[in-house]
Amino acid sequence: MTLNKGDIVVLDYTLRLADTGEVITTTSEEEAKKAGIYKEGEKYEPVIVVVGEGSLLPGLEEAVVEMKEGEEKEIEIPPSKAYGERDPAKVKVYSLREFKKAGVKNVYPGMVVRIGNELGIVRSVDGGRVRVDFNNPYAGKTIKARVKVIKIVKEPKDKVEYLIKRRLPEAEMKYEDGAVTITLPLKYILADNIQAVKVVLADEIFKWVPEVKEVKFVEPIKRPEGEPEGEQESEGTQS
Questions:
Q1: Which biological process terms from the Gene Ontology are attached to this UniProt entry (predicted)?
Q2: Sorting pLDDT into bands at 50, 70 and 90, what band is 235?
Q3: What pLDDT band is residue 229 in, cutting at 50, 70 and 90?
Q4: What pLDDT is recorded for position 234?
């Protein structure tokens, strides 16, 4: 069964460089620890992906759309369908003086720098010249991927549930006759970026679940436990 654009899949995967076996990224905590890339506080869990959204490497998505629920496979992804081919035009040379004027006193190979809106890696510093590479660090590399399709989600109500879970995992959802009501806990209501998240989530639901006609957010604030409902009248008066 081929998956269609807009279908939702839950995936486990690990990406490695084909030539060295170095793990680039993984959804598995065990794999992260084994590879020495585990980061405390980072979530390692299956990811929720919308087919056609563009969040996966093109070669990985091509494989996933042909897979069945519960299926696991290993694939090899060429550079053109992974992080792209290396582009010599993205390697640029700057004067060391420019960095010093910007307040950067110590420039060294391997240093990550931002120039304009681009991130690059300093490849060499020689004779007052700094060579910066703006290619993706994995450009030109063949990638090996191990991927497992844990779940395929196609029903409108289930798709809405997983889209919400991806953005606001602790929110509650009610789906009825094309109307979605999302109830937010206090921690989300107080979050600085909650308005932006609500707009993005509503847009995603409308885009990927055409059956939905309305999205409503409910932000209840409950009385703290133990707080009295009103002031108690005094039992006596003083003269």
A1: protein refolding
A2: very low
A3: low
A4: 46
Distance of alpha carbon 227 from alpha carbon 121, whole angstroms: 56
Mean pLDDT of 149-153: 96
Q: What is the 3-class SS of the chain, one letter each residue?
A: CCCCCCCEEEEEEEEEECCCCCEEEECCHHHHHHHCCCCCCCCCCCEEEECCCCCCCHHHHHHHCCCCCCCEEEEEECHHHCCCCCCHHHEEEEEHHHHHHCCCCCCCCCCEEEECCEEEEEEEEECCEEEEECCCCCCCCCEEEEEEEEEEECCHHHHHHHHHHHHCCCCEEEEECCEEEEECCHHHHCCCCHHHHHHHHHHHHHHHCCCCCEEEEECCCCCCCCCCCCCCCCCCCCC
| Pair of tokens at residue 152 | 């395929």
For 1-85+139-154, the fitting CATH number among 3.10.50.40, 3.40.50.300, 3.60.21.70, 2.30.30.180 is 3.10.50.40
Delimit the domains of the chain by residue range: 1-85+139-154, 88-133, 155-226
Q: In the structure, what pLDDT confidence band is assigned to residue 231 with cuts at 50, 70 and 90?
A: low
What kind of fold does domain 155-226 have according to CATH?
Alpha-Beta Plaits (3.30.70)
Average pLDDT of every residue of the chain:
93
pLDDT at 230: 60
CATH of 88-133 among 2.40.10.330, 3.40.910.10, 3.80.30.20, 3.40.50.2000:
2.40.10.330
The two structure tokens encoding residue 106: 């110590």
